[in-house]
Amino acid sequence: MENSSQYLFLASGVNNGEGFWIVGIKNCDENILDDENLLDCHRKELIGNESAKDIVLAINLNVNNLLNELRNKNYLIARPSMGIPFDIPLEILENIFDFWLDIYKNHEAWVACIGLLKVRKRIPLTNLIESESLKGNSKKWAIKIETLHTYNPPSTKNEKLNDPMWE
To answer: Residue 161 falls within a domain, yes or no?
Structure first.
C-alpha cells in the first residue's frame, strides 16, 4: 500500500453528542460515511496515499495555527474530544482544504508554502509581506496563507481576568 489511492476528505461528525469537523484519509474501497461518528462528507478527493498524508499534515498545521491564534486572542473555542471544533465555520475549513489540495499539485509552490506555514506557526507573515522581504510567488503565497489564518469568530472573548496571586 505504498502509494495506493486514498480518499482525502473533510467531514462533519458527532461523538457523544459533541459535534466536530475532521480531515482524514480513507481507503478508496471504503465508504467514508460508514464511520458511525460521521454525518456528512463536504470534500472528498481521490489521491495517492503519500500525497494525502502530506496534505492532511499541512491542513492540520494550518488549523492548529488558527486555533492557537484564536486562543491567544482570548476567544472561547470549545475543544472537542476528537477533530476540529465546530466553532470554525465550514467555509473556512473548505478554503484551507482546497488551498492545500491545489498547491500540492505544484512541487515548488508546495515546498515554499509549507515553509511559510511553518514560519506562520511562530509569527504572522504580515511583517514579511509588508517589509518587502518576500518577492514574487512567495509573497503571493504568504498573503494567501495569512488570509487562511484571519478568521475571528463572532463569539465572545474570554474577558475573565485571573485573580491576583496575593489574595
So the answer is: no
